[in-house]
């Protein structure tokens, strides 16, 4: 269920601090794209999340 995953995502970030999308995806057993969609949904709901994009 998506609501459970969103809560798990928030709890992981709260307990561990910074995590990559890849690490979150592995932990929650979903794709990285799903993590990006979930972060977008949380941000849209007013939960402040900060993301970084490194371009090399």
Automatic annotation (TrEMBL):
Keyword Disulfide bond attributed: no
Domain HTH deoR-type: 2-56
This protein's record includes keyword Electron transport: no
Pfam families in the cross-refs: HTH_11 (PF08279)
Organism superkingdom: Bacteria
Keywords: Transcription, Transcription regulation
Gene3D superfamilies in UniProt: Winged helix-like DNA-binding domain superfamily/Winged helix DNA-binding domain (1.10.10.10)
PANTHER family membership: PROTEIN PAFC, PTHR34580
The protein, known as: HTH deoR-type domain-containing protein
Organism: Dictyobacter formicarum
């Amino acid at each position: 269920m998506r609501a459970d995953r969103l809560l798990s995502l928030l709890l992981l970030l709260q307990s561990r601090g910074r995590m990559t999308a890849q690490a979150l995806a592995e932990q929650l057993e979903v794709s990285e794209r799903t993590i990006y969609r979930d972060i977008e949904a949380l941000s849209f709901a007013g939960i402040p999340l900060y993301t970084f994009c490194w371009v090399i």
